Amino acid sequence: MKFTVNQKELLNNLLIVNKAVSNKNIQPLLSGIYLETKDDNKLIIRGTDMELGIESEIGALVDESGKIVLPSKYFVEIVRKLPMVDLELSTEENNQIKIVYGSSEIKLNYYDGNEYPSIHDFVGECILKIKGDDLVNAISLSQVVVSTDMTRPIFTGILLEIKNDKLNFVSSDTHRLCYTYVENIEKNVDKWESIVPAKSLKEVAYIIHEDEEIEIHITSNRILFKSRNIKVTSRLIEGKFVNYEQVIPKEFSTEINIIKKSLLDSLERAFVLTRDEIKSKLNTVKFNIKEKILIISSRASEVGDIYEEIPIYLQGNEIELGFNGKYLIEILRNIDGEEISINLNEPQSPGIIKGTQGNEKFIYLILPVRLQ
After folding, report:
1. Which among 10, 125, 212, 367 could bridge 132 via Cys, Cβ 3.0 to 4.6 Å?
2. First and final C-alpha spacing in the chain
3. CA 46/CA 117 separation, integer angstroms
4. Is-contact 41 73, C-beta < 8 A?
5. pTM
6. Which DSSP state fits 153?
7. What is the Cα–Cα distance from 90 to 94, expressed in whole angstroms?
8. For 297-319, how does the pLDDT look when each residue is reduced to its tens digit (9 = 90+)?
């Protein structure tokens, strides 16, 4: 193997691919980054932990093709610290690769690349095409309410569902639920559903360019995202997602419109008081909804109290109920737009948070907490 590549372009793509590499893996190959040079002046860079796989293709001046695996822990950091010049890399007989930069050089041990897992460019039973910015936005909205409890794996993923000519994204941590959707997609099936690990989708959102069209291929157990020069594959989560349509209320007795920043600022001040409460761990904030104001109050026995009034527009009944302030803060930080709508029924029934003024392609459901 012998090739020349730009340091900046190599580093940018190494950082992308390295997202799929686990340095804790006991198999040396899987804690490394795969490099393959091709005669058509292409450099393939690949990383995988067997759950998530990322592959990038960039241009390089290839003098000799080959396949090797380099320890990511050292290779990425070395390239990061090299000057922004063209790098000349060539393998030597003693299983080392020589990296030449100017009049200097570094040598690293490498592994044979022939045993490294491939990332199959498969054709899915379900094939979608979606705008990059739509995909990133849907992932961003839904990943905030994903569970980290590995004993209930379906809640560590995000449901991708084709239904009624839309691609739905649904997630839940059992205390909250998010539903959002993307329209105007190209698809080859009318119905489909798969649960994709939230970790994998987070990396997809980080990697892809929002101005690209993304092609998605899905089988019964794997999903593949393809852009111009990046491929991301992931295993799917087995199981059936909850029937989210049954738990989302359709009618409400109370609806308020409120400025998002005013509510978020107030909740963050209340959270300062409640975040260290050891006994309840609920970070409880009380909402008292009156005709023109929302009264937010919270009490931490060892710290103090807070009472704030926020102007609202109310339709329906006045109501008093409690929420976990931390859960609300995480949702509000993730929503664009100046104004939100909060829809409620009884104090123990789920509340719904939606956008307004054209920002309405999502809803968050949140369960209230019982007031003491």
Report:
1. 212
2. 69
3. 9
4. no
5. 0.92
6. G
7. 12
8. 998 777 889 999 999 999 999 99
